[in-house]
Design goal:
- The protein is 0% helix and 43% strand.
- The chain is built from no helices and 8 strands.
- It has one domain.
- It is an all-beta fold.
- The structure holds zinc ion.
- Zinc ion binds next to loops.
């Protein structure tokens, strides 16, 4: 079982998707300096069952109604620690990353 889905580019793993139960999207921390839009890269502990990424993951998603949704978290040992600036219902809570199907 794995909580992560590798993102491959030119047969090299450049990052990982995981499903976020807070905002309902997938987050994609990149571990290689890559042509990603955010221009950042994260460290990964290499554990697909209890992943840790650093630094924190911050996503701002424009919604169709014009309001921005914020999802900001630390991912530590397979758990997502949602920070207080999240705009979704799991702000301030810590939850397990769901298993990938
Ligand atoms: Zn999220």
């Amino acid at each position: 079982m794995s909580k992560l889905l590798p993102i491959e580019e030119n047969e090299q793993i450049v990052g990982y998707f995981f499903d976020c139960p807070g905002c309902g999207m997938a987050h994609a921390p990149y571990v290689q300096p890559y042509k990603n839009e955010v221009g950042a890269s994260w460290t990964f502990n290499g554990d697909f069952d209890k992943p840790t990424f650093a630094p924190s993951i911050l996503a701002k998603i424009e919604r169709s109604d014009g309001k921005a949704m914020v999802c900001h978290s630390f991912v530590v040992e397979g758990k997502i620690q949602f920070l207080g600036d999240c705009t979704h219902a799991l702000a301030g809570q810590t939850v397990d990353i769901p298993e990938q199907n």
